[in-house]
Design a protein that fits this description.
This is Aldehyde ferredoxin oxidoreductase. It is a single chain. This protein is of the alpha+beta class. The chain has 23 helices and 19 strands. The radius of gyration is 22 Å and the shape is globular.
């Protein structure tokens, strides 16, 4: 069935239409539809921060059904950080609610004359003033709109950081789920769109309920006895933290020295033991991977994620539990991407160490200064705070900093060190969204027993054999998960969904027959369009890593003396994709995929 789109021009009105049938056939939906729309319908050379840029929210065919782990969404745009393609992801209930309102793809364009929010309620599509919401954090915004409109609405909002122009501002779903990585929140803010509210409705019908339930039961039973799934169920993405510490993937002082893994583990253990635990995630999911904790003062804060701990705990050096909880809460409420914020603060601290920036405002391990910096950058100021720019632009402003700036293509690198994790390093270097490995969700090096359905051969974290092939598998499977509407954390971080099970779910829910070959081609088309978009539009589309990771091995710890052989890895990666030696898709490959 053709995908149903709703286009809202914030200055002119809205329109519903069906996308061409080949979009659903060749790209399925969700992220696939976003890739198609950005490639074929965004006007060439449209500036990221302009009225003509498209901000696209999409769900897949599984979203809105009664199946678990199908409530999230993907959002894409042209990135203000890289100039290339940007994606963000979040779980929860908002994506399911959008599709239950007969919208597969929501396209936002234009710029509102004043701050507004969008309400979607069945056939009603209305823009309303958000002047009373300006300055409110994401949690307060969600609570206010729920109180005004009823408890059956799902709210997506930006916080104060977006309002004042922080380049790595995040969107937050339901006051609970950060949209990560960075890029999309700044575009939403530029359009003066404070929130998008969708009224939830009954689950959508399923073609074969018995088959869907059988597949979901199989996934649930596997997860109940799987150690990785149990670790993520217990403490979220931080379930991978012990492996990262053991492998030396956490480094400190902007990756100059091994991190104190014992101190970080002790700090997180103290956090995880706190009372008032509340699990949350997509409706009915047997792997609720987001957790709230009640603090000593009675407040509820989100349990810090792997990226937040690696960034602020290892890179910046903060090992106080209360401070870490406060940072996690600030990022959520202010609407700030944690990985990008940690990278910016890390970069500025080293730039001050090196004498490249005169004024000293940050020191390693100074939690009070970090919290003050997050608060300061989220307040309107006469002169813009350099920390609000993002590492890519900060590097350009600070002469002599390129070798150590933790960014690729302009997007911040999360703090897992590529000298310890070769596949993650290759993912950082090649990702079309910039230096964030979550584009491909290639976490296998942190998993004790990677699933048997990954392509052979398996190899150790600091070996090269098989890394290019297995990264390509992750890229494509992440793409089809996002196009399907099934949670990428369940499917890849926890490795609990086989490709065959995804095919069976798609068939059971939609009635559409999809073969394994079809699924591979859909994933490859999405990845290829992402690649082509960034190669065409990004200010710097080079696949590389900062010199620190390529030429400066650590002198101690598990990774001492090792740097990833990126040139060798890239040559195989390009060849296996069917791209030329420069990393561009060849005409023959494009013809094979049906991409004109």
């Amino acid at each position: 069935m053709p995908l149903r789109s709703l286009t809202v021009d914030l200055a002119r009105g809205h329109a519903r239409q069906l996308l061409p049938a080949e979009v659903e056939r060749d790209y399925l939906g969700g992220r696939g539809a976003i890739a198609w729309l950005l490639w074929y319908q965004l006007e060439p050379d449209t500036p990221p921060l302009s009225a003509n840029n498209l901000l696209i929210f999409a769900t897949g065919p599984l979203a809105g059904s009664s199946g678990y782990a199908t409530g999230g969404f993907t959002v894409g745009t042209r990135s203000p950080l890289t100039g290339g393609i940007a994606y963000g992801w979040a779980p929860g209930h908002w994506g399911a609610a959008l599709r239950r309102n007969n919208v597969d793809v929501l396209i936002i364009r234009g710029e509102a004359p004043d701050w507004c929010y969008l309400l979607i309620d069945g056939d009603t599509v209305r823009l309303r003033s958000a002047r009373h919401l300006v300055g409110r954090d994401t949690v307060a915004t969600a609570a206010t709109l729920s109180a005004e409109l009823g408890g059956d609405v799902r709210v997506l909002a930006i916080g104060p950081a977006g309002e004042v122009g922080v380049a790595y501002a995040s969107i937050v779903a339901e006051g609970q789920y950060l949209v990560e990585p960075a890029g999309t929140g700044a575009v939403m803010a530029d359009k003066k769109l404070k929130a998008i509210v969708v009224r939830d409705r009954a689950p959508l019908p399923v073609a074969d309920v018995a088959r869907m339930q059988s597949v979901l039961q199989s996934i649930q039973q596997r997860g109940e006895r799987h150690p990785t799934a149990n670790a993520i169920r217990a403490i979220g993405s931080a379930g991978l933290l012990p492996a990262a510490i053991k492998l030396g993937a956490l480094t400190s002082r902007d990756a100059r020295t091994p991190a104190d893994g014992v101190a970080i583990a002790r700090m997180f253990s103290e956090i995880a033991r706190r009372g008032g635990r509340q699990e949350r995630g997509c409706a009915g999911c047997p792997l609720p991977c987001y957790i709230d904790l009640r603090t000593r003062t009675g407040e509820t804060h989100p349990l810090p994620s792997l990226e937040l701990i690696a960034g602020f705990g290892a890179r910046v050096g903060i090992t106080d539990a209360d401070t870490m909880l406060a940072i996690a809460d600030r990022c959520l409420r202010l609407g700030i991407d944690p990985a990008a914020a940690a990278a910016a603060i890390t970069f500025m601290t080293e730039a001050q160490d090196e004498g490249l920036v005169r004024q000293r405002t940050l020191n390693w391990g100074d939690g009070a200064a970090v919290i003050a910096a997050l608060d300061r950058m989220s307040q309107r100021q006469e002169k813009r705070d350099i920390l609000s720019l993002g590492v890519g632009e900060m590097q350009e402003a600070v002469w002599g900093s390129a070798a150590f700036a933790p960014q690729v293509k302009g997007l911040a690198m999360p703090a897992l060190d590529p000298r310890a994790l070769t596949e993650i390093g290759l993912a950082m270097a090649t990702s079309p969204i910039g230096g964030d490995y979550r584009y491909a969700m290639a976490f296998e090096e942190l998993v004790a027993e990677p699933p048997a359905w990954l392509p052979p051969p398996a190899s150790g974290p600091r070996e090269t054999e098989g890394k290019a092939l297995r990264l390509i598998w992750h890229e494509r499977f992440a793409a089809v998960l996002d196009a399907s509407g099934l949670c990428r954390r369940l499917g890849l971080m926890a490795y609990q969904v086989t490709p065959g099970e995804l095919i069976a779910l798609l068939s059971a829910v939609s009635g559409r027959t999809i073969s394994g070959a079809d699924l591979v081609r859909i994933g490859e088309r999405i990845v290829t369009l992402d690649r082509m978009f960034t190669r065409r539009y990004a200010a710097n589309s080079q696949d590389t890593l900062p010199d620190r990771y390529l030429r400066e091995p650590l002198s101690s710890g598990p990774t001492a003396g090792y740097t990833p052989p990126l040139d060798v890895l890239l040559a195989e990666y390009y060849a296996r994709h069917g791209w030329d030696s420069a990393g561009d898709p060849t005409p023959a490959r494009l013809a094979e995929l049906g991409i004109p």
